[in-house]
């Protein structure tokens, strides 16, 4: 306990000093406890460390997508609620059943069975062009179809198809030259189901026409009309086998959309009729027919076929029958068309390998020479290389045919021939091609 007396007056300096000294020694002041404030730095550091550690744990759990505090599960309703409005406008809620609907069991209907009733239809309306004397397109098809034949050509392992038109009752058939080109065997299918073997009696690349011959009776020749009477806008139909005999006898309609079109077909320029009637591979050689049932053209090609890579529609072409009457008659009667110039030789392009390995020039390797030609008389033979003709480099048969297209029988052309390392120049006289 304290030894100084609290009743002493603090005014006495000595006594006051002594009391203060004693109080200081015992840790007390007059105003109360005078213990110095404690140092809380350690506590603060501990709290801060706990806070940082707890924050780190929360961050790690967040990155691991683990919730720290689980959300309370929503209170489940006894059943879903659907709100509806009654007729008097009162809104209420009704529980919706969650039970799956009962599956309806198949029922067996007793009594009279149901029948599909088909009533009698009136006769089909005849579709006739509005032209005096025209017959309906149904009649056109019935009239022309017996004169249309399906053509299948075999050449080694290659099979090609086309269409033809019976020219007369003696067995001559008209088609395109490109249909029967290189054919080793030709087979025809008639409308009555007969299959006949045919031979090509003549083909003319200049007009893309060929005439076949079959030995058969009871043939139905087509009726041919004057193609020079056609006008742009006249209705026509094409009949043939698009894409082959599987679709044989297909008829497509259109109009004459152009006359006297000069079109490049292969290596030759033909003057053709243009039509919107749909033509496809297999229609070649088939008839283009007017509204009277007359054949006015022989279908030959469409833009987008072998003549062009353009993918277009409504651009078909046919050979006008009147302009090729003489060609067809000559092919049937003598097997060739008079006045077609030829060089009297055939060949094949010289491969790049032979040019490099044997140091041969680019040209046409001669594989056959007509003994009656001027080329044979001038000494040309198998193995010679024709390098130029009339100043034009000859690298293929196509180039040779293009040169001859502008020539006539009897024309003289300067030729260059390579043989045994030496080039020779000579003049060749064009003869008449007789297949």
Keywords:
single chain; 435 residues; alpha+beta; Thrombin, subunit H; Pdz3 Domain; 3 domains; 6-stranded antiparallel barrel; 6-stranded antiparallel beta barrel; 8 helices; flat; disordered N terminus
Quick gist of this model?
This protein is an alpha+beta fold and 435 residues long.
Protein model, in words:
The chain has 435 residues and is an alpha+beta fold. It folds into three domains: 1-35, no CATH class; 132-338, Thrombin, subunit H (Beta Barrel), CATH 2.40.10; 341-432, PDZ domain (Pdz3 Domain, Roll). The protein has helices at residues 13-26, 41-63, 137-144, 177-180, 325-334, 352-357, 374-377, 397-405, and strands spanning 28-29, 32-33, 81-85, 91-95, 148-155, 158-166, 172-175, 185-189, 195-204, 209-213, 235-240, 250-265, 268-275, 287-289, 295-302, 316-320, 341-342, 345-349, 364-369, 385-389, 392-393, 412-419, 422-429, 431-432. The strands form six sheets. It has a six-stranded antiparallel β-barrel. The chain has a six-stranded antiparallel beta barrel with strand order 11-12-13-16-15-14. Strands 18, 19, 20, 21, 22 and 23 form a six-stranded antiparallel sheet that branches. Strand 9 and strand 10 (209-213) form a beta hairpin.
